[in-house]
Amino acid sequence: MNQISNQLSLAAAPGEVVLREETVRDFFAREALLDRAFGLGRWRKTCERLRVGRLPAPGLAFTAVCDGVLVGTLRFWSIEAGVVDGAGREALLLGPIAVSASLRSNGLGGTMIRHGLERARELGHKAVLLVGDAPYYERFGFSRAGAEQLDLPGPVELARFLALDLQPGALDGAQGLVRATGALAETECERRLAA
Prior knowledge:
- The chain has helices at residues 27-38, 48-51, 108-122, 134-137, 188-193, and strands spanning 4-5, 17-21, 61-66, 69-84, 87-99, 127-131, 150-151, 161-165, 175-180.
- By secondary structure, the chain is of the alpha/beta class.
- It is built from 5 helices and 9 strands, in the order ββααβββαβαβββα.
């Protein structure tokens, strides 16, 4: 298994995977990795409606690089997770996450998720939603609780619509439609960072 480092350093030992914040230079490699992982059907997914044309949440877009090659990507997006007492409930949407086929089952995906969730906590975010396989995401604390009264702007298998409170009770009472709140990409450089 390759060694994985959370350092934001460009100096890595050969074969070492380094997690770092995404840059605009990652655009083509990131998109190619996502196409290989999910196919072109990824653009039709319901969660894409919450990402399209928007920038990832500040400080919450990561890449994994090994020997100068992008081998992983994980991004979070600013959303409103329904309302509580008439006010929108701020949260994050996790995804997509992709890992190069040559590194799958080596723990890189889990390392990236733990790193991203910890960073989200450090930045003061209170909750995260995602659409994914419950048996995989349960190990990080995700469950249907918190998402049960929320709706996405399109079809989704309810068993795959999961939530995680980063702060206890963050999604208590949240109900209604999840909507995008992140900044819109305006410049060409921003569009390469956007979904």
